[in-house]
Amino acid sequence: MEDKRNPLKPGGKRRFNFYWIYIILTVVLFALYFGGKGDNPKEDIEMGQLIELLQKGEISKIELINKEDAEIYLKENPTKVRYTYRIGSLERFEETVEQVQQEQGITDPVYITNIQRRSWGMDFLLGWFPLILLVVIWIFFMRSMGRGGMGGGGQIFNIGKSKAQLFDKDNVPVNVTFKDVAGLEEAKVEIMEIVDFLKNPEKYTKLGGKIPKGVLLVGPPGTGKTLLAKSVAGEANVPFFSISGSDFVEMFVGVGASRVRDLFNNAKQKSPCIIFIDEIDAIGRARGKNPINGGNDERESTLNQLLTEMDGFGTNSGVIVLAATNRADILDKALMRAGRFDRQIYVELPDLNGRKEIFDVHMRNLKLGNDVNRDFLAKQTPGFSGADIANVCNEAALMAARKGKEVIEKQDFMDAIDRIIGGLEKKNKIITGEEKRVIAFHEAGHATTSWLLQYAHPLVKVTIVPRGKSLGAAWYLPEERQITTKEQMYHEMIATMGGRAAEQVIFGKISTGALSDLEKVTKQAFAMVTYYGLDDKIGNLSYYDSTGQQDYSFTKPYSEKTAEIIDQQVSKLVEQAYQEAVTILSNNREGLTQLANKLVEKEVIFGEDLEHIFGKRPWDKEETPEVKTADEPKLEDHEG
Ligand code: ADP
Ligand code: ZN
Known about the structure:
The chain is of the alpha/beta class. The chain has 4 domains: about 45-120, name from scop; about 160-345, P-loop containing nucleotide triphosphate hydrolases (Rossmann fold); about 350-420, Helicase, Ruva Protein, domain 3 (Orthogonal Bundle), CATH 1.10.8.60; about 435-640, Methane Monooxygenase Hydroxylase, Chain G, domain 1 (Up-down Bundle), CATH 1.20.58.760. The protein has helices spanning about 20-35, 45-55, 90-105, 120-145, 185-200, 200-205, 225-235, 255-270, 280-285, 295-310, 350-365, 375-380, 385-400, 410-420, 435-450, 485-505, 515-530, 560-585, 590-600, 605-615, 625, and strands at about 45, 60-65, 70-75, 75-85, 110-115, 165, 215-220, 240-245, 275-280, 320-325, 345, 460-465, 475, 605, 635-640. The longest helix is centred in the last third of the chain and has 28 residues, at about 560-585.
């Protein structure tokens, strides 16, 4: 798998190591603190010696430092401290000095001067420490905010610099070309044009044509949008700036805008080149949608700056901005206006053929066993994105390596697929015998209902091996339909309720194990009533907002009364589905029990086992081709 964020930073400068500041600071403070001492030879003396010196009249002066220490200067060298004496009681000390001199009848008595003094280091510390601390903290914050900046060094001054990562010939070359991008044929055709623009701009400008400035790549995560953008740069052999929308947004006001400015300045210098903005929704979301706080000013100003920059650079400048999002509908309409991102390329999840090709690309460097067949694997991975498939291939290689194999076998791929769908098998999760029976009946309930309902998706496999967070799972191979009828939706809801219904029918009590079933079924019922106009009472109305411009979390598009009816209809629908499931399972108690027992015994069962128990589904195969529009099955895992 490819790593989007290459650790090699372009620019080649080494990052300044921040810890030097701490070290230097510590050394300086130590030097200051201890440096003051030991610069001239001083001796500590006792009271007795002091009295002796006084009697002899050798002392020139005594200075009391902080009323704690006495520094004694001698007449032979009155500029240097010769002795120090630690004072116990100040009064007694002064008394003694006076007394001794009086007794000796000295005419010019030694004066005691009082001096307040702190040590150099201490002074420095108390005076400057708070300030230094502040500066250090400030630097620290700046540093963590400016992290990952271009070129690294001096992060404090880099906060407004764009954090785009640059790929070009001198630094990290873009080594992705179209042959690394599998499937996506339509997208490639459109993107090919852009490569041509970048390579031979004259061809278009000669005729007065304008080269597009922005292209929006729209599609679910992991479908290869980044890959596609990179391949454009790779094919056209131009530099590639990569940045994520969220990299613009910072705590400080104005930073986002200045980063946009900086990015475009850099790009213009490298023109022709490509700027790739991943997750552009982070800055491009429609403005001013939130009625509470009036939107996010910082994000808006960043977006405005982006629009200004895109308007500002000429169509012939050779900079093309590619941006990726998985939701074009929530983007600000201003982004899509002519001269900005006026082209949109849809990057969909790969179909069967697409998946075959993606497997090919990612199997290129793997050592495969003879039993690995990419056609079979592509069939087993409906609904997988390119990134998922890349992940499967990598995971399979790791699994084979863990088992000490020489080549990667089919089973490794199958395990990798299961793992990616459901998370790691947790074979040693502790489940009591009774719990296991409940789970088996729950899953068997899903399996039985879906098998017996014409429009529910046929089952591929059921397990009661705990995986990830779920305790059991059923895999279906639904036909990917372009339209779904009310019956189909209803039958699916019944199958979803089949788990809980089985618990009710067999044990007479229900459990918490159906949480995700209930969530799913509630959402589906809600969609049927409010989005698809499939409910008699609500009628042919849809409260769905495809523009994403309304904020329904604050204002509902229907009245309180309608809201009540919606609630009623949704709960009626779910309740009906549940009762239907209970009826089906009561009538097929025998088969359900057989199936559940088999599950307890084998932990995994497949479609064939159901066929043994319930017989063939009469409506399968013969009838289906003309009813079902799409040939593309979609895998849906179901948590129980
Ligand atoms: P997106 O930007 O759409 O979220 P990426 O381009 O980052 O997805 O894809 C992640 C990884 O998935 C890629 O680096 C690549 O390994 C793999 N991948 C995705 N789509 C494809 C594809 N069509 N062909 C080959 N590999 C793909
Ligand atoms: Zn379930």
